[in-house]
Amino acid sequence: MFIPHYQRDADQWDDIKKSLFIESVLNRLTIPAFYLASSEDNPEVSEVVDGQQRLTTLNAFYTNQFTLSSSDECPYYGNSAHYASKRYEQLAENWQRALRRYNLTLVSLPQNMELTLRLEIYRRINEGGTPLSGQDIRLGYYSQSEAVRFIQTVGIFDQTREGSRRIIDDVGYPWPWGKYPDAAPLWEKWWSDSKVALGQTASEMFTWYLVSKYRAQIDAILRDHNRLAENLKLTFRGTTDEVLDIACAQLRFEDSRPDEPRLMPSQDVLRDEDFPRFAEWWHKIRLNCGPNANVAKHRAIALFIPALDRIFPAPPSSGQWTLIMRFLGKTRETARELEVEFPEPKGKWRKQREQFDGFDRVAEVISKK
Description:
Elements: H1 15-26, E1 34-38, E2 46-50, H2 52-62, H3 93-100, E3 106-109, H4 115-124, E4 126-127, E5 130-131, H5 134-141, H6 146-154, H7 162-171, H8 183-191, H9 201-213, H10 215-223, H11 225-232, H12 240-255, H13 267-288, H14 298-311, H15 318-329, H16 331-337, H17 349-367
Parallel strand pairs: 1-3
Antiparallel strand pairs: 1-2, 4-5
């Protein structure tokens, strides 16, 4: 059994939540089931699909890596005198035995399940009340790809978190934002203490940027249904989430065949070309668009950057920045004023693809103002 490094940060729970979870086990209260899936490479090895945080917490407590919170800090259910403020090794033997003998419910997904269906099941599983996002799943499933790992590192905004440190140590290269001392603090502040930042939303923003920038390559992949099924083991039914899955699957496929021509960017291209353009434009937008460039607009900003990068070889004028700011604040209203059709995707790739072109047309109109 293993937990993928990139599935989800292992430090999303604070000490209070960890302590209440351990108390549930000690007092034999019901906890959610753990979902497992056989590894594609070795059917004898199981990947933890749902339950990473709970397993990590159990292991950390059992190996005396953290102390349960005090009764003053934590709203324990019952008489907590036997375990509050204690590590596992400090518990009486009967309480240690209660933890060791607790029965866990394990649900194994079928090994031969079609990947498309497996990903859909993953999306519908909740982890302790916290949904496992589509980006969490993608990063976990395609983490063998160096390019996908780079996407993960771009999404880091707080290097002090345990999960962030583990990711950077594992990939073996510095945090990409470290090369941008002016932008990095703003990136950290933008995402910190935001509900939007749960899971892997920051890395998903960079994924959106890549999908928009490489839309022509994505189109070619989607048109070739046979190769899509043969190489990526995926089918396309017209949803946007599937396209994000396909983009990451293609990155993994191409990384596994380094001698063959690529459609999607390699890790080197991401690091040396794509990310610098993303970071530079994100920084400009953050400085020039004020509150309209808030974190809730992260997807619109990600999709707008490729258009701005292509249309504006020179920096926008102050008047053009005013229009860009208005567009981010009131996207559809401003698009109408600029006489640009701007569809609402509602999860459908066809409309999302049309919206990409809408961002291009908005940038073109603004460039002429």
